[in-house]
Automatic annotation (TrEMBL), chain A:
<dbReference type="GO" id="GO:0005829">
    <property type="term" value="C:cytosol"/>
</dbReference>
<feature type="region of interest" description="RNA binding; important for wobble base 34 recognition">
    <location>
        <begin position="284"/>
        <end position="288"/>
    </location>
</feature>
<feature type="binding site">
    <location>
        <position position="347"/>
    </location>
    <ligand>
        <name>Zn(2+)</name>
    </ligand>
</feature>
<feature type="active site" description="Proton acceptor">
    <location>
        <position position="91"/>
    </location>
</feature>
<feature type="domain" description="tRNA-guanine(15) transglycosylase-like">
    <location>
        <begin position="13"/>
        <end position="379"/>
    </location>
</feature>
<protein>
    <recommendedName>
        <fullName>Queuine tRNA-ribosyltransferase catalytic subunit 1</fullName>
        <ecNumber>2.4.2.64</ecNumber>
    </recommendedName>
</protein>
<dbReference type="InterPro" id="IPR036511">
    <property type="entry name" value="TGT-like_sf"/>
</dbReference>
<dbReference type="GO" id="GO:0046872">
    <property type="term" value="F:metal ion binding"/>
</dbReference>
<feature type="binding site">
    <location>
        <position position="319"/>
    </location>
    <ligand>
        <name>Zn(2+)</name>
    </ligand>
</feature>
TrEMBL record, chain B:
<dbReference type="Pfam" id="PF01702">
    <property type="entry name" value="TGT"/>
</dbReference>
<comment type="subunit">
    <text>Heterodimer of a catalytic subunit and an accessory subunit.</text>
</comment>
<feature type="binding site">
    <location>
        <position position="353"/>
    </location>
    <ligand>
        <name>Zn(2+)</name>
    </ligand>
</feature>
<keyword id="KW-0862">Zinc</keyword>
<dbReference type="GO" id="GO:0006400">
    <property type="term" value="P:tRNA modification"/>
</dbReference>
<comment type="function">
    <text>Non-catalytic subunit of the queuine tRNA-ribosyltransferase (TGT) that catalyzes the base-exchange of a guanine (G) residue with queuine (Q) at position 34 (anticodon wobble position) in tRNAs with GU(N) anticodons (tRNA-Asp, -Asn, -His and -Tyr), resulting in the hypermodified nucleoside queuosine (7-(((4,5-cis-dihydroxy-2-cyclopenten-1-yl)amino)methyl)-7-deazaguanosine).</text>
</comment>
<dbReference type="InterPro" id="IPR050852">
    <property type="entry name" value="Queuine_tRNA-ribosyltrfase"/>
</dbReference>
<dbReference type="GO" id="GO:0008479">
    <property type="term" value="F:tRNA-guanosine(34) queuine transglycosylase activity"/>
</dbReference>
<feature type="domain" description="tRNA-guanine(15) transglycosylase-like">
    <location>
        <begin position="12"/>
        <end position="385"/>
    </location>
</feature>
Length: 412, 396
């Protein structure tokens, strides 16, 4: 195991921790921006450091295509290649394959697909996914899982869950750098609590017997766990319940990573339920479409009402974009000039990093419920907090009745 | 604005100092950087401190860029360019033509206004409208509205362009309500007589400096020097001369040799979007032609094409010893990858390096003028480049 996870503060299920990785000491809860092809679109590593990014994601599928994991390895690993000195996480490549390639087929061997380069059939096995990720060299690597959309029902989900468990064993066996890279297992099982439970237990029980112990593995448990298969269009009510169930069942002393999440509201809820790490393309992607993240929700800079609005995007934000630019100016840039995309991405990531820091310090300072209430009041000033959030907060043990009541005092 | 000539070469080239903002002095000949709506194309403002200062603090803005979404009223409400862009320590020169997307369209220009091709389509800009834009932007320097024509127009059309440009100059000055320094526009196409006439007339007006228009629109390099000399010989020494349309190093040197002080060049932009990085040597020592290596396949000795596969695993910086952010932090291999996967960061890194490098070129030129060795530098530079390109063509 190549990480240390130390819980520094709690509120019910929520926890704030210090996560020590080979390249960086991180504080959770944290959001990880997605740098798909070895870069966060349009932003430099120095800017990411300034904003406070701790871990960024690289997509194995994209990097294996270009420039290839062999080239990255030859040039000293992804950290050196992109000159990012903090932490990196790579995914297994499986999700992109399933979502980007329309002729992907999943068998026990692995994921077969048509190479986007020359159309030839190719196979991504658990072993190969780990090999590629070993070459890329990220601090955290993900096991290849059998990903199934939560909108699918039927026996396929059960099949995928059991296969994920068999594949984790193959991943563990194939992992050549356990002292430098942390292999996270992914809990699958769709929206079925029974299946999820089986999966969690299976992953947790991977205390490998000594005769399968991979040479170099210091600790036989997995260093961390991810909750996968969500953030794919399922209803919010199912979404939070799966997260709640998994966080309840996963070990306390290991980090929990909810993949593909996402919206600031979702991150606050999941943190209340006991998750620690998140990733999503949303903040940077929505920036490229001209949408800014603000405490009230979103601000669509493309809208013509922005054309003469001389206020900053968010008067409470201290980023260089909000300190220097008006909505009107950003409006004339967005979707037309690269600079618009860059400035909004900068602001949106700044917002997400601040959210991460605020979650961490609120928990540590014993102010977490107040933070959650304040967050919800800004986002739902009329008190119309969605029911799923109310239900989730009840399970999380956080009283948000002041935010939800139709005649709440927050309206004064 | 304050300007003064401090050193002369043996010919018309001169080195000077221009003061636009407070105490900040920018040495001339200077490069005025291209912008889109006031900001660089890819370098966000928090990265500006990494560029040479104060060299990088002189920016070109086209008022026409803002027609795409920002009214003069809103710009005024925000407080003008400096406030709007958060660039208070920067000098802005407002010129309608940006040589990239805002181009003079002489066929549609008429007696009421100058026509430009812009991202919003073809627009006719009249002096009244133009001055509204200028007054809302409140730049440090601005150019009067000109009727620029390419080299191949008829004599009659060329003469008309001079008459119009002079009339609009007077109109703009009369409509002027802000304090910025005015650069009187001088046109005249490829006619020496018209160039002389226009220059003499503009020299009589109460302007702070001169903007030499109509170049980079089809004239040959051979005829250019004569035309430029005709203009500058008829202008007072102690006022600055700015020009658009002279982009490449060779053209810039030509302009400097004729006594031009400020250059708006889009060379950096075109290099950047093409995936090129400047590599020509910036020292003044003689004999800079290195033996072309096989690894120079992506290069012609003056710049490299980072899309070339030869850079796929090249872990060296673009230029060894270059102190720009890109060369200090990133490798050719990484930029090659970014270009291959169409990532915007490639352009950001390239614009930083190319800006740094081209500003370095201007600095070296200024030093040679101050040392009284400009003519030698010019000759040697051209000679070297011819040899590089010749040598590169041998290995191709």
């Amino acid at each position: 195991m190549a990480l240390r996870f130390e819980i520094l503060g709690r509120f019910n299920r929520a926890r704030a921790s210090q996560l020590t990785l080979p390249h960086f000491v991180c504080q959770t809860p944290l959001f990880m921006p997605v740098g798909t092809q070895g870069t966060i679109k349009g932003l430099m590593t120095s800017q990411l450091e300034e904003i406070g990014c701790q871990i960024i994601l690289g997509n194995t599928y994209h990097l294996a295509l270009r420039p290839t994991s062999e080239v990255i390895d030859e040039l000293g690993g992804l950290h050196k290649f992109m000159n990012w000195t903090r932490a990196l996480l790579t995914d297994s490549g499986g999700f992109q394959m399933v979502s980007l390639l329309h002729l992907a087929d999943i068998t026990e061997k692995g994921v077969t697909f048509q190479s986007p380069v020359d159309g030839k059939p190719m196979l991504l096995t658990p072993e190969e996914s780990i090999e590629i990720q070993n070459r890329i060299g990220a601090d955290i690597i993900m096991a290849l899982d059998d990903v199934v959309r939560t909108t699918i029902t039927g026996p396929r989900i059960e099949e995928a869950m059991y296969r994920t468990l068999r594949w984790i064993d193959r991943c563990i066996a194939a992992h050549k750098r356990p002292n430098e890279q942390n292999l996270f297992g992914i809990v699958q099982g769709g929206l079925d609590p029974v299946l999820r439970d089986i999966c969690v237990k299976g992953l947790v029980d991977r205390n490998l017997p000594g005769d399968i112990c991979v040479k170099g593995l210091v600790d036989r448990n997995l260093p961390g766990y991810a909750i996968g298969g969500l953030a794919g269009g399922e209803d919010k009510d199912s979404f939070w319940r799966v997260v709640a169930q998994c966080t309840a069942a996963l070990p306390e002393d290991k980090p929990r990573y909810v993949m593909g999440v996402g919206y600031p509201l979702d991150i606050v809820v999941c943190s209340a339920l006991g998750a620690d790490m998140y990733d999503c393309v949303y903040p940077t992607r929505t920036a490229r479409f001209g949408t800014a993240l603000v405490p009230e929700g979103v601000l669509k800079l493309k809208h013509r009402t922005m054309a003469d609005d001389t206020r900053p995007i968010d008067p409470t934000c201290t980023c260089m974009v909000c300190k220097n630019y008006t909505r009107a100016y950003i409006h004339c840039l967005v979707t037309k000039d690269a600079m618009g995309s860059q400035l909004l991405s900068y602001h949106n990531l700044y917002y997400m990093m601040k959210l991460s820091r605020d979650l961490h310090s609120a928990i540590i300072e014993g102010q977490f419920p107040e933070f959650v209430r304040s967050f919800l009041q800004k986002m739902f000033p009329k008190g119309d907090v969605p029911e799923w959030v109310c239900n989730a907060m009840e399970v999380a043990g956080i009283d948000i009745s002041l935010c939800c009541a139709p005649f709440s005092s927050s309206q004064d | 604005m304050k300007f003064g000539v401090k050193a002369w070469s043996k010919g018309r080239a001169r080195a000077g100092v221009i003061q636009l903002i407070g105490e900040m002095e920018i040495e001339t000949p200077a490069l005025v950087l291209s912008t889109r709506k006031g900001l660089p194309f890819f370098i966000s403002p928090d990265l500006f401190p990494s560029l040479p200062s104060p060299d990088s603090h002189f920016l070109h803005v086209s008022p026409l860029h803002f027609l795409e979404g920002l009214t003069p009223k809103t710009i005024s409400n925000i407080g003008g360019l400096h406030q709007m862009l958060g660039l208070h320590e920067f000098g802005f020169a407002a010129v309608p033509r940006d040589s990239i997307v805002c181009l003079p369209d002489c066929d549609s220009t008429n007696k009421t206004g100058a026509s430009f091709e812009t991202p919003c389509g073809r627009l006719l800009i009249k002096p009244v409208e133009y001055m509204k834009m200028i007054s809302s932007m409140n730049p440090n320097l601005w150019v009067t509205l000109a009727d620029e024509v390419p080299a191949w127009v008829s004599e009659k059309r060329n003469k008309t362009s001079v008459d119009r440009t002079l009339r609009w100059l007077d109109d703009c000055i009369a409509l002027n309500s802000i304090g910025g320094a005015v650069l009187g526009a001088i046109v005249g196409g490829s006619s020496v007589e018209e160039r002389r006439r226009c220059a003499q007339e503009v020299a009589k007006r109460n302007v702070s400096g001169y903007w030499i228009g109509g170049f980079g629109l089809g004239e040959s390099m051979e005829e250019r020097s004569t035309l430029l000399n005709t203009v500058t010989d008829n202008l007072p020494e102690q006022k600055p001369r700015k020009i658009c349309g002279l982009e490449l190093p060779e053209e810039v040197l030509q302009g400097i040799a004729s006594g031009v002080d400020l250059f708006h060049s889009t060379y950096i932009y075109h290099l950047t979007i093409g995936g090129f990085a400047l590599t020509f040597p910036l020292d003044r020592t003689v004999g800079n032609v290195s033996t072309p290596q096989l690894s120079d396949i992506g290069s012609d000795g003056t710049k490299i094409n980072l899309k070339a596969t030869v850079y796929r695993k090249d872990t060296s910086p673009i230029v060894d010893g270059c102190s720009c952010y890109t060369c200090q932090n990133h490798t050719k291999a990484y930029i090659n990858h970014l270009l291959n996967v169409h990532e915007m960061l490639a352009q950001t890194l390239l614009e930083i390096h190319n800006t740094h490098h081209y500003l370095g070129f201007f600095r070296v030129i200024r030093e040679s003028i101050k040392d009284g060795k400009f003519e030698e530098f010019w000759e040697q530079f051209i000679g070297n480049r011819r040899e590089h390109i010749f040598a590169a063509s041998l290995t191709a």
